[in-house]
Amino acid sequence: MNDFHAGFVSFVGRPNVGKSTLTNALVGEKVAITSSKPQTTRRAIRGIVHQKDGQLILVDTPGIHRPRTLLGERLNSLVQSTLGDVDVIGFCVPADEKIGPGDRFINDQLDEYPRAKKVAIVTKIDTASKQAVAEQLLAVSELREWEAIIPISATSSIQLDTLTSELMRLLPTSPAPLYPADAVTDEGLEDRISEYIREAVLEGVEDELPHSLAVTIDDIIERDDKDIVDIYANLFVERDSQKAIVIGKGGSRIREVGATARVPIEKLIGKHVFLSIRVKVAKDWQRDPKQLGRLGF
Ligand SMILES: Nc1nc2c(ncn2[C@@H]2O[C@H](COP(=O)(O)OP(=O)(O)OP(=O)(O)O)[C@@H](O)[C@H]2O)c(=O)[nH]1
Predict the structure, then answer these.
(1) Which of 16, 82, 129 to mutate to test the pocket of ligand 1 (most atoms within 8 A of CB)?
(2) pLDDT by residue (tens digit) across 130-159?
(3) Global pTM?
(4) Which CATH number is associated with domain 5-170?
(5) Alpha carbon of 129 to ligand 1 centroid (Å)
(6) A Gene Ontology biological process annotation (predicted)?
(7) Which of 14, 19, 34 to probe ligand 1 with, by most ligand atoms within 8 A of CB?
(8) The CATH homologous superfamily of the domain defined by 189-294
(9) Is 234 marked as binding a ligand?
(10) Is the CB of 102 under 6 A from ligand 1?
(11) What single DSSP character describes residue 185?
């Protein structure tokens, strides 16, 4: 049987166009955290879509942007090395914003990856009128020759099956699946937990604070006597003033963060969780090669 398709697909686009939300919607599970803050995604996260006739491995990448810090530069080079390896690139533009210089910049970069097939995805069509969507499809079609142009909404589940089968069709045939049938991601447990915590902190913080956040896990300990898992996490910020904001009056904010993050973590682990989050200052870590290394970038 040679009609099983399997391969790697990456969604690219400006920050905040809905790449992570789309990844989660296609996988059917939260493998990538999302937020309304630009540049939420910092790693290439793999989400795996299983179908009878194929396996789609989605590599979620940070949004491409002009870097302002060393972290920004590392994120951009992560995108570049990821795109060099994928079979299909899905270029995402939102239906509710006109194509601008940021989109053109990314579209031009796609020439550097001749091996990958290219499809355009118009995202968030639930937010725009039929006419606006039609105009956006036309504008996108003028950027280059695409294998397909597909309008979707990840939050309203519009055309997601169409997108999956289009992507599947463009993947190479494979003698066997690349991942086991029950895998939804290749992210490790610690990384997924850290990301859930970062997502919870991102809710409600503003300005440059979202970029200053990093989370690491010291320990995950199963208790012998009870069905509880103890998780010890560190939340890094860059300045003392940010530490105060994140902790909140009398620790109120950080308690809320813990309660919010515990929900997806307990779902993931299938047990009750005691979550300890210690807030620490790592001064200007986004610009410091040593600290970036320690935080996993
Ligand atoms: N209305 C609507 N909102 C969406 C849709 N998809 C994503 N969003 C919202 O758009 C925002 C950004 O979504 P993300 O998935 O985090 O965007 P991203 O492109 O991965 O962003 P970065 O990680 O910054 O690159 C979030 O607030 C989402 O809820 C959609 O189909 N419809």
Answers:
(1) 16
(2) 999 999 999 999 999 999 999 999 999 999
(3) 0.73
(4) 3.40.50.300
(5) 18
(6) ribosomal small subunit assembly
(7) 34
(8) K homology (KH) domain (3.30.300.20)
(9) no
(10) no
(11) B
